[in-house]
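This section describes the prediction task in plain terms. A model, or a person checking by hand, is given the sequence of a single protein chain and must write out its three-dimensional structure as a string of tokens. No templates, partner chains or ligands are provided. The sample shown here is typical of the held-out split.
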Amino acid sequence: PKGLDFGARIGMRAPEGREGFRRSYDRAVDVPGPAVDFLGEVAAENRLHLVIGVIERDGGTLYCTVLTFGPDGSYLGKHRKLMPTALERLVWGFGDGSTLPVFDPDIGRIGPVICWENYMPALRMAMYEKGVQLYCAPTADDRDTWLATMQHVALEGRCFVLSGTQYTTRSDFPEAYAAVQGDDPETVISRGGSCIVGPLGKVLAGPHFDGETILSADLDLDDIARGKYDFDVTGHYARPDIFRLLVNESPQPAVSRGHGFPDDT
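The expected answer:
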């Protein structure tokens, strides 16, 4: 959670940090698992497409993960954050290219990109090449500058960008949550800033700060084609004779069982 340091210092890890990690590990989500089933039920009950962040547990490692569900409750898949930011690298593992999905339900092609991954040009390029239309960007970045980032992504990819940022106070967290922001129940941990942006960079809703809300906007997917008339970064506005992106989408397990190595000749 935002504001924790997990007792980390260069050359040492404090016992309270290990205990904090243990608590986070115990509360993490197995995929598949009961929490995934529950979220599918929520999506089905409310007849909505659900894109939601979780802390995923896989073996002894935690991942910052986004799960996507269809309106019938079906689990469509997940994306693991490729590059945990700063201190996150101590408590979260690194995703690989096997979880870079763009899903294709009936409302448009959905692709999730987490927090500061949105500052990784190569990742954005990979999503654009997959034809993302509804670019979902959950984040913990509640700075004023985030809106400009979302406008840039929308303009660059000629896609709709939907960014969700939590509004939370200290009272939303367990008693053991030792955030650097303080212990006052009314202390704001994350002030929000969710927004919806169109393919030409127009802000369609938000950003909304300092309270909970539901943002909505009418999205015309034909606006994507209108935008790509003069700019398609992976099509007519690309220069593959000069620049090319290579994406490795194979899983990268630490242990592969079999005879020899996959690249043996």
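For orientation: The mean pLDDT is 94.
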